[in-house]
Structure formats: structure tokens, C-alpha cells
Amino acid sequence: MATAPKQHLMTDGLILREYDTTAEADRFVAILTRDKGLLRASARGAKRLKSRSGAATQPLCYARLSLIPGRDRYIIEDAQPQDVFFPLRQDVEKLALAQYFCELALRLCPTDQPAPDHLRLLLGGLHYLCEDKKDPLLIKAVVEGRLLSLEGYMPDLTGCCRCGKEGGELVFSPTAGTLFCSAHAAQGDGLAVSSGVLAALRHILYGAFERCFAFSLPTPEVAALATLMERFLLAQVQRSFNTLEFYHTLRP
Known about the structure:
Layout lengths: L8 E11 L7 E7 L3 E7 L18 E8 L4 E10 L8 H17 L7 H16 L4 H15 L5 E5 L9 E4 L4 E4 L9 E3 L1 H12 L12 H19 L4 H9 L2
């Protein structure tokens, strides 16, 4: 009996990472796709100078992909670049932050299920980094926070978890993911939260997805927001990220 031909998967995807391989000409990559979430794929001959898929299968390239299911990975039959985010490759700090976004995606994004919002979020973060119109720390906080919320890591930011107080001096616990007022704040990992930072947190996590980057803060509050969001992320996922540690070595 003849076997049915394997179905092509046509989708958009962001190349997150290239893996080391003994194959001299082939490229093995991890991709965040719109229709199948995270997947691994190989591009035969992609490292050759005249390869049609060479440019489109490099890390941080957003491409239109034609994929064929294989035994343990997809085969990239064709890849057409949509955006290569060239400005990131000219700024080592922005490039490091973009690589951190990719490592986050590899840790948090779903596998073998649609992930359109995850992909939109990462592409939005990369676009804003390229445009240089927003503080990179603000972009970082949005990507971290919204990616966590997409995966169900949702803090309670309505008010003090003990008495319900919504204003005044509030403290956020990254470990518990809750707010405390000054009367109920315990010693530990609590971080003071200004009204501006709290409003930004609520906007990132609770607001319309299409507008998650659409806000601004004074520079000192951006730094406070970035610190709080990063500590919340690290407390929730309970692991470190090499790309994040490298990014911090580049900042003054």
C-alpha cells in the first residue's frame, strides 16, 4: 500500500536559536511559529553560500516557511525572509536583549499548538528595539510580563492581599505575586511600588494585547518597573538565563 504524502505546513516563524551540529552544510534551528508554537527544524544546505534558505534561517530572522514533518524534526523546504531586524545586529546591547527574548520564548512558549500572540509579542519587542523610540528596559518589562501572563503566571495587582487597600504605600512580593500595604508587608522579598509603576504593571498584564507597549514612564520609574518585572519572572520560573546575565554585563 502506498503511503500518503506528508503534508506541508505553511506558516510564519521567528528563528530563535541555531544548534551546533556535525553537518557541515545543514542548519538545525528552533523556531517560534504562528501555527505550531515551538518546533525544531533542519534546513539542508543552508550554510552554503548560494543556499536559497541561508539568510532566512539565521537566528532573529522572521520568515515565511514551508515545512515538512520529519521523524524527529521538521524539514525546511523553503524559507522566505520577512524581516531580519538588521539594526539589532549593529548594537551589541540590543542584540543581547533580543537573544534574551529568544531564550525566554524557548522556556515559556507552547509546543505543537498555535502561538500567534506569543509570536506577535516577540516581533513587537524586536520592532520596538529596532525603532529606538522606547527605553529598552521598558520593552524588556513588557515582553517579560506579557509572556508570563500568556502562560498563566498572573500576579494579583488589585490591592493589598490582606486588607484590599488599593492606594498609598504598597509593596509587591515577586515570590507570592501579590501586593501588600505598609501595615501588612512582611520582611522578605517585597519591593516598594509607586503609583506610576503599579499602573504600568496593570497595563502590561491586564490591558488590551494590541496596546501592551503603548505607555511611557519617567526614566527612574522605568528602571523600577524593569527590576520588579525581572524579579517576578525569575521567582516564578525558578531558573536563571545566561543571555540575561550577559545583557546585564553590558549595561552601565
